[in-house]
Amino acid sequence: MSKVIIGAAVSADGFIADRNDGVGPLFDWYFNGPQELPAAPNQYRPKDGYRPAAASADFLRATWASVGATIMGRRLFDLTDGWGGKPAVGDHVFVVTHRSPGDWPSRYPDAPFHFVTGGLEEAVARAKQAAGDRDVSMPPGDLAGQAISAGLVDQIDMYVVPVLFGDGIRFFGEHKIPTTMLNNPRIVESDRVTHLSYDVRPQ
User: Fold this and answer.
1) Partner of 190 for a Cys bridge, out of 48, 55, 98, 156, CB 3.0 to 4.6 A?
2) Which Pfam family, any one of them, does this sequence belong to (predicted)?
3) Residue 194: φ, ψ to 5°
4) 125-176 confidence digits (pLDDT tens)
């Protein structure tokens, strides 16, 4: 059965970026090892892919292969210009928005991006249908906080980097989330990052 998984790099004090959307050293571990890890090319990724440590490479290969669709919010979509029309992971992207960008079809006519104006629950339903037997990925931030609050998340993956930001954008954004019980994590220790995968206990 398809799962909804929130996953991303995060500082040890719970931030995914600073207040200016800078990620500082949060992504350094993608490039501190010998393992070649190709990634879908776009203007926001290195042409030669990533080079993480072996444990991180194994974790990412398995994670990326399991994803069939991604859900993102309009803010991240605008910040990245929709990753240039190429999904970061999976085959389809569902953007939760109040209004579709008017110029997108002409700029990226073949991009597998779908704009959902009916809300998060509709986006999750459509993403699961598109993913089939694979999972649905969701970046952290306010949309992730809404998804947790609505009981729509099955798993949380935190790639914890040993750095303290002190302030910034929180993993679940500014959305106030309810107390949510998680199972004990599956842990992958790597170089300058620890991958923690928590299953969310049913509410």
Assistant:
1) 55
2) RibD_C
3) -125, 125
4) 999 999 999 999 999 999 999 999 999 999 999 999 999 999 999 999 998 8
Cα gap 182→164, rounded to integer Å: 23
Question: Residue 90's closest CA among 40, 156, 55?
Answer: 40
Nearest to 123 by CA among 92, 145, 102: 92
The answer to pTM > 0.85 is yes
| Domains with residue ranges and CATH for the chain | 4-199 (3.40.430.10)
Q: Are 192 and 32 in contact (CB under 8 A)?
A: yes
